[in-house]
Amino acid sequence: MHQSSDTDLLRYPIGVFTPRTSLSAHDVQQLVDDLDALPNDVRASVARLPDEQLDTPYRRGGWTVRQVVHHLPDSHMNGYVRFKLALTEQEPVIKPYNEAAWAELPDGRSNDIESSLLLLAAVHRKWTSLLRSMTREHFARTYSHPESGVSTLERSLQLYVWHGRHHLAHVQGAPFNASRFTSPA
């Protein structure tokens, strides 16, 4: 059995993504509710963080809290578009993007986080509205990712909820964990 190291716990504070099969309608509704709550949870978690903490990585070699906050709407905009493509095309091939490179762009490294908090809230408002209108048949629709293969929208919903909570845990833990992997000045 693999034992988790401190690095594993910092990298995957809520564990690695493990999708469930055969979700009930209640399970799907709970996932949509979780996705709907994420923007407020992220906003509350960064509300009083000074720039010094926003510019602190959540783990050695990891992104700063600021980069994580900017990454969430970047990723979730892509997720929303993937859902729209899968609902309107027959198993579309979606375009991956280089998340790490996006996080290193100036808007991810140094911009004020307010624009990303607003964008995350707007994307989630539109996305959860779409999700609440979807039927079981809609959630069975698929898209193809060139690197990870075919995914149903039910699986993708689980992935994006996990993704949001995964990075929320990074944001919430970073100010407290920073001293574990930064060297004294």
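The record above closes out task 2.4. Task 2.5 opens with a second protein, given below.
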Amino acid sequence: MKRTLAALLILLMIIATTPTILRAIGDGQAGTTLSASVTAKAYWTITYGWTIVKSVTPDTWHLFPGDSGKSQYTITVTKGEGTEQTWVEGIVTVTNSGDVATENLKIVVQVEYKTGGGQFQLLPKAYQTIIPGQQLGPGETCIYEYCIEFTPITGAVYRVAAKITITNHSGHLGEEFDPEPKSDFELPTEPTLVNGVIHVSDTDGYSWVFSESGSVTYEKTFTCDNKGKT
């Protein structure tokens, strides 16, 4: 009697779990695998803003026929302090190496750093999350671009880590799992200057080049040519 009850309990357990197993297979949960790579290149720029003011003295003449007057024009340019930006950008290449489409594909690209002999750690607020609009079919490859702005840390070494996850990876069904390729990168040794030099053209036909704040002057003569009738 005890053996019969034990066998009955085992049978009931099998029956209870069978629909779940069948649903997993029927819903495409047999699992797939991914392969991925990431590239990284860093940029450092300082962008300058400029103000340009043109003035003239005197700005009004009252001339009689045959008279002339000379005015002095001043062009004054002021260079701003500059806005500094540092960022890393690149592409994440993902391939579905399995026989079923991916599920809940997500890519999180993060900047990591270390100083001295320490371990790599996440750089705060330096990450980008990519949620693709479409899943990858069997054998399909797709490229995803990223761009992450960050504040450098003195003496740090950097790399990018791209965590690519799906929820139907073989052997890990129902959990976020998959590869995390990495790519080292270095900051430029000096910044690229944006608008570090400007060319100013005047309506009177003059032109100048400025790399710093400054001013130039020129004179212009006005005449009243109409001498009237005698």
